[in-house]
Amino acid sequence: MDYKALVQKYDTPLYVYNFDIVAQNFMQIKNAFKARKSLIAYAVKANSNMSLLKHLANLGSGADCVSIGEVKRALLAGIPPYKIIFSGVGKRDDEIAEALEKDILFINVESEAELGRIEDIAKSMGKVARISIRVNPNIDPKTHPYISTGLSENKFGVEIDVAKKLYLQAKNSPYLQPVGIHFHIGSQLTELEPIKEASEKVADLVRALQKIDIDIKFFDVGGGLGIRYQDEKTIEPYDYAQAILSTLSGTNMTIVCEPGRFIVGNAGVFLTKVLYEKRTKSKRFIIVDGAMNDLLRPSLYNAYHEVVVVGKENERGSKADVVGPVCESGDFLAKERELPPTEHGDIVLVKSAGAYGFVMSSNYNTRPRPAEVALEGGKDRLIRERETFEYIIEKEIRFMV
Ligand SMILES: *Cc1c(COP(=O)(O)O)cnc(C)c1O
Q: Rounded CA gap, 189 and 217, in Å?
């Protein structure tokens, strides 16, 4: 890839996504589950760019959404309502009402109180809400605590015995139709055993529900499939699917899988330019024009992204921190990396930045958010304009007295 040409054309900081790799990743998961009917519902929160969603819609993807805004994005991008799921631990009344209005596939319920709200809202609208209950299987996914969600100390889902009670409640309500069961134990999962254990526990619950005439049609296994940022061992989609499918004997459900990171993480890069180098007594800093407001993962999770200086990949170097211009010591993209001497204008390539990159960006320090570019069939095209100063202040300026 000619990153220099891209930077000349679009400037930095810049996100670039390879849509061909996105398609490959999507098909890999789709094919892994081919022994059963499946719906791959891309987790929109990983990267919600409209052109990316349209690309996924064309591949047959559904969408897992965590706000009504994401539901509306998915619909606008051409994902049909019957492939859209609404998840999330805190849905507002108006979000629930709009989801019912749009007639999406189902709502993932995360608490008893939420089930009650959904019932009331469906009743007031004269509708029947299709629901799925998010079960917390209480299993340690062995990932970063901030992205682990399947332990009883996490805020997500309900415990298995509570779930059973909620299914009965739903079955007995004329305004609720239980159609699915859901679990999602965490993100960046790199071990198979916790997934299999969780799936087994939830499948047992499904079989118990069958016995009391509650027929679950969708087995929603969440997302979380990890990717390689550094040298992690990762799970093959085929093995992941097999681990889940092996727990489902005696059932006839459609698999719903909600991958986010796996689809886009390694399909995207972040490009930033070197402004200066600076040395203190103990450290070497490479100061670049991209910052934590553009790519938050290093600051938020101490996440590792591989970085290289474009055109100097093979040069010897010394340890340096790659830092942005934001006024926070926590503003860094990489720490203690072996990097060659750089000059003003050199391009630093930050890899694996397609997921949880742009979507977590902000205007902190009145920095316009970066442009986004898609690569497809060897061609590049802009899919989000770089923000301008005027755009940032637009919602404030007219209130100034
Ligand atoms: C975040 C999330 C996903 C996607 O997670 P990835 O690690 O990006 O695959 C899927 N389902 C739910 C409910 C989520 O919260």
A: 26
CA of 44 to the centre of ligand 1 (A): 9
Place of tokens 């390689």: 228
Pick the catalytic residue from 113, 327, 400, 401. 327
Domains in the chain, please, with CATH?
3-15+266-397 (2.40.37.10), 33-259 (3.20.20.10)
pTM, entire model: 0.96
Question: Where are any strands of DSSP class E within 38-99?
Answer: 38-43, 62-65, 84-86
In whole numbers, what is the pLDDT of the chain averaged over residues?
Answer: 96
Q: Give yes or no: 327 in active site.
A: yes
**Closest approach atom of ligand 1 to CA 259:** 9
207-244 pLDDT, tens digit per residue, is 999 999 999 999 999 999 999 999 999 999 999 999 99
Left (φ > 0), alpha (ψ -120 to 50) or beta: where does 149 sit? alpha
**Ligand 1 neighbours by CB, cut-off 6 Å:** 43, 45-46, 64, 87, 184, 187, 222-225, 258-262, 355
Q: 């997302």: which residue's tokens?
A: 223
